[in-house]
Amino acid sequence: SMKTTAPTGMTSASTASVGSRTRCTAGSGVNARASAGRATRRVSATTTPGGLTVGITYDGAADAPTNAGSYAVTGTVNSVNYQGTTNGTLSIAKGGQTITFPAIADQVTTNTVALGATASSGLAVGYAVVSGPATLDGSLLSFSGAGQVLVAAVQSGNANWNPATGVTNSFSVTKATATVSLQDLVQVYDG
Fold this sequence. Notes:
By secondary structure, this protein is mainly β. It contains no helices and 17 strands. The strands form five sheets. Strands 1-2-6-7-8-5 form a six-stranded mixed β-sheet, with no helix packed on it. Strands 10-17-16-13 form a four-stranded mixed β-sheet, with no helix packed on it. It has a three-stranded antiparallel β-sheet with strand order 11-15-14, with no helix packed on it. β14 and β15 form a beta hairpin. It is rod-shaped and about 125 Å long.
């Protein structure tokens, strides 16, 4: 058996004879499992004898899927001398993702921190104050007092990506330093 690639939706492959009929047999590609991402996911087919063209459809369409999910796959021999069809299911699993959340240095109460976590999937990251004197406005973190702050970065996934494991940063917030200047230290007694 041999496997070569042909135009979109077509695979040049081989078939196996069964009695007076020829049956297209799909190789390991017909019941395939792949990770989600942006790439097109194509299955392959093998046939005996070699050199036959196999048309492959995904849920009845020639275009291969790019999203996570299950797709009915049909491979059909396209030949004057041979016939054959087989069916299978292409399963594209949701992809895994991770969050990178750089450490946050200790802060003072008057600071505002722009949080900069990223998800390996490219999806937007959300934030939550787990504990401490801090409030969020989108990705801007500000402080309402001194204390230990824990802030979490989260990404809940979507149709193609599994949720990422959250990442929590911890840091201390201290009161800002104020300058005190005393005035009127020299006065004259006037009775």
